[in-house]
């Protein structure tokens, strides 16, 4: 785009850049270009589709590179570096977990040398690992759990836990308690001494996801996920 618009960036200069028909089509038809600024329905429409307004802390990580060298908005109506700065500031204000920006015209670079491709691959790998861990944990839980024909209830609390857990088994006595890691390794085994209540220390184990398998006096196994903080 040319710099002929100068520094007086107005609604008219935007129309000169876009063309009236294009601006009108964007809003579904206009009687006058002034509607863009004064028509309540168009103002509300812009608010409804404003991506900055909809950012929140549960959004996924963001990486964006804005390499526009324009020194004034009239030089780059759609991808000006100031647009990039607004996205960056809004994402940070919304506490999105990870925000990386590369805007050389404004000397903004928070990428730490990581490219867009590397960023995407890193997060895809993280998603893949989380999915794999979730599938692995479900497979282990299914392998450890047998049918419970009597429908006996097991109460484990607190969960998540740090120092100890309480285990209550209704309608039967606890024979054994086994603690497995997420990879299926047996970490601990404890006898219930034919009681239906037991307190088990867990402070010696590293934080993570574990599985408790409680075997009752009848030989039925009851397995549950346990989160150690």
Task: Give a verbal description of the structure.
The chain is an alpha+beta fold. The protein has six helices and ten strands, in the order ααααβαββαβββββββ. Helix content is about 30%, strand content about 25%. The strands form three sheets. It has a four-stranded antiparallel sheet with strand order 7-6-9-10, covered by helices on one side. Strands 1-2-3 form a three-stranded mixed sheet, with helices on one face. The chain has a three-stranded antiparallel sheet with strand order 4-5-8, with no helix packed on it. The protein is elongated, with a radius of gyration of 30 Å.
What Rg is obtained from the alpha carbons, in whole angstroms? 30 Å
Total count of helical runs of at least 4 residues: 6
Broad shape: elongated
Which structural class should the secondary elements be placed in?
alpha+beta
**Could you tell me the number of beta strands?**
10
Helix share bin: 25-40%
In spatial order, strands of the major sheet run 7-6-9-10
Distance between the termini: 57 Å
Mean pLDDT: 77
Low-confidence spans: pLDDT under 50, at least 5 residues?
Answer: 1-7, 144-151
The arrangement of helices and strands along the chain is HHHHEHEEHEEEEEEE
Q: What share of the residues does DSSP label as strand, in percent?
A: 25-35%
Please outline the major beta sheet. Answer: 4 strands, antiparallel
